User: What shape does this take?
Amino acid sequence: MYIQTIINYKIINMAIEKILANIQTEINDLMPTLELFVQHKIHPSVNDCDSLKIQLASLQEQLAVYKHLKQNKELSPSFNIHAKVSEMQSEKIVTEEKRIVPEQTTTTQLPEEKIESKQQEIVVPPTPIDVVENKSNHKKIVLGINDKFRIINELFKQNQTEFNIAIEQLNTLPNWEEAEVYLGELKHVYFWNEKNETVKLFYNLASKRFN
Assistant: This one.
């Protein structure tokens, strides 16, 4: 359910780290050339000028890529809001998969009937098609204008974009069990108090989608 968000988040993080490492390397390589231009008694040659120009151009290009990746990460609500939620959920998915997959025994060849029986024990997670089909079975979350602003202000730190993404995600979940898990993870991310009336209101409005 959240796997694509996790993958995208990790890919961007890896790219940022790689570009930053390249920038640091190029700055270190640039230092000797820069010293030629700051020493009063040294007159850099034409080749030194060309070398500095090439190194600065390469560094500028790396900085532009780094800035672009950072902006995409910082401006994308799915990365800012649900990265933590997705990572929490993925850990649970991995744990469940480990419990589902049968333990390996000896290398002795099992009869075909036993092999088929063990294969049937593996629970295959729902495909995107299954999720799409389930989405049509439920209405969307309905919020009054007052409730909406109350939830945005008190639960999402007055950030409407984060609220909108959370609602969009909740509207794609196929059942209340998954919605409740997702809300629970949001509660940890935003430090909601489960006794808070606005938190109770949000849970109640979300649950009505499945009634």
Observations:
- The longest helix spans residues 3-38.
- The chain is about 75% helix and 0% strand.
- Residues 192 and 199 are 7 Å apart (CA to CA).
- The chain has two domains: 1-124, 145-210.
